[in-house]
Amino acid sequence: MKKFPLFILIAASFLIAGESNQTRPSQEHNASLSEQNLTLKHIKEQQEREKKYAKEKAFYEGKDYNLSDKKISPKEIESVPTIPPEDDFDMSDVYN
């Protein structure tokens, strides 16, 4: 009767040890899958950054834009009247 609990304890420890050996490869597999998923996520993020950069680069280079109809001649600039300021800003009253 004293040997029965000892036998159950030993059998349970063997079962637990056996299960941990079976789950270890799947944990390693899950870790490698999560690394692959993380790598794919980083690749997609970098591709989106590169698309954004390509869009901005096209904008800043201005190859696709025709701005010739927006040019202003010097004669047009001379014809614009000078607008004097309405109020002369004076702070001398504040310091008296």
How many strand segments?
A: 0
Q: What best-fitting shape do the alpha-carbon axes yield?
A: elongated
- The tally of helices reads 2
Poorly predicted regions:
none
**SSE-based structural type:** mainly alpha
Strand content: under 5%
- Give the end-to-end Cα distance, rounded to a whole number of Å: 107 Å
Q: How would a textbook summarize the main sheet?
A: none
**What percentage of residues falls in helices of 4 or more residues?**
55-70%
Give the overall pLDDT as a whole number. Answer: 80
| Cα-atom radius of gyration | 39 Å
Helices and strands, in N-to-C order?
HH
Biased composition (Acidic residues): 85-96
Region (Disordered): 74-96
Signal peptide: 1-17
Coiled coil: 30-63
